[in-house]
Amino acid sequence: MFAGIDVASERHVLARLDGTGRPLGRPIGIDEDAGGYRMLLEALGPPPALVVMEATGHYWKNLYATLVAEGHDVVLLNPIVARRFQQAQLERTKTDAIDAAALARFAFEKRPAPSYIPDAAAEALRELVRHRDRLQQDFEDRVLQLHRLVDLGFPEFTRYVKGMHTMLATALLSECPTAAAFARTPPRRLAKLRYDGRHRVGEDLAERLVEAARRSVGQHHGPVYDLQVRHICQDLDLWRRRLKELDSDIGGLLDAHEVGRLLTSIDGIGPNSAARIIAIVGDPARFRSAGAFAAYVGVVPALRQSGKRTGTRAATGFGNAKLRRALWMTMLAAVRLNDWLRPFYERLRAAGKPPKLALIAAMRKLLHAVYSVAKNRKPFVPITEQARAA
């Protein structure tokens, strides 16, 4: 049997085809509860059926776990692929039943391979990484809000304290939210303030801040601004502690994951980068080659040529953008510090390659190292330029 499920938040739609591609009855509504799942399994009959559904948000996860546990083959389809298939069928009407029937037709005609879902440890890392990303985004949003309030109440503050996200900034602003508060605070009291449990603000910085506050052009010093600044500083301190706790939890899970632990042996792949790779990919060794793994990330050239136009190469726009974006920041540091990536990057630049192209090539080289470590289950041993010359 071939089946397609149009996934929704509370009610899904199932369409079925027999072995010859003929519809089996009308599409069936499946509720997101125990009764609906019983109806789904009864409608599919004995396993294995090939079931195709779109990976829509998180709504597919319970369906997937239930169907796989019963022995069915489940394919998670990118919504873009599903939409292109329907367009190729010249389907112009869109309903849940029609979408489910199109997914069943895709299963019958294309016979896609069942999707791979990472193991429990990788799934736990995925949840922690996503939670950390949300907290980090909230943290950065609060920093922007704090910057706005400081610009209104004490714009000269950023000349003396670099980085509104630092513990020094939040400790000072919690004590004195505006220029008016700094101006009436004795420098000696401010100098004794500890901002990380150990270091003090110091007399020099305290005196310069108080003096600048007395001459500040900031005009917003009311209780409303004091309250907002103090609340944001409290939020930043809380999220900073939570991010630290999450990093510890991620590190603990990574130590218990064989591939994740080995990935940190690659110079340039830290715990957060390794955790993100495992969270998104699972085991990189599941790909048939290092090139296939790089293609999944999207670090492959795309040839653009049409008619008489001379072909040009650029990075493809496909692939896993989240992982590519996370590794991009890693690469910016790696091409400056790594003994085995820096010479490679510098050689490309010396050959006239643009910086971005050289970085993409270096990222591909890094992904080949990731694949090699996962495939061989051995720590990474770099071959530097000096070793190759010897």
TrEMBL record:
Entry GO MF terms: DNA binding; transposase activity
Protein name in UniProt: IS110 family transposase
Limits of the Transposase IS116/IS110/IS902 C-terminal domain: 261-346
Lineage top rank: taxon: Bacteria
NCBIfam families: transpos_IS110
InterPro entries the record matches: Transp_IS110-like_N (IPR002525), Transpos_IS110 (IPR047650), Transposase_20 (IPR003346)
An annotated GO BP: DNA transposition
Domain Transposase IS110-like N-terminal intervals: 3-155
